[in-house]
Amino acid sequence: MYPANEHCMVFVGYDEADDVYIFADPYGSNGVVRYGVDESVLAYNSLNIQAVAIVKRGGK
User: Fold this and answer.
1) What does each C-alpha distance from 20 to 3, 28, 36, 43, 53 come to in angstroms?
2) Distance in angstroms (rounded) separating the CA atoms of residues 46 and 50
């Protein structure tokens, strides 16, 4: 389930000092963006808690 006019971002880090998550955001060539943890969790929850994880196999 994906609402119209939405896009995906890639989570790339967390800044503990500023309590923000850091994302690579391809929309409109935004580049790297920072969003507050609370704002990020609210958006994630409101879009049905969808995520994709890429995991390297084989340990190398």
Assistant:
1) 25, 21, 4, 14, 20
2) 10
Determine the longest span between alpha carbons in the chain, in angstroms.
38
Burial 3-20 (b: 16+ CB within 10 A, else e): eeeeeebeeeeeeeeeeb
**pTM (two decimals):** 0.76
Residue-wise pLDDT for 12-59, tens only, equals: 999 999 999 999 998 888 899 999 999 999 989 988 888 888 888 886
User: In one letter, which amino acid is 4?
Assistant: A
Q: Which two tokens stand for residue 49?
A: 């808690």
Q: Are 31 and 24 in contact (CB under 8 A)?
A: yes
- Is residue 23 within 8 A of residue 11, CB to CB? The reply is yes
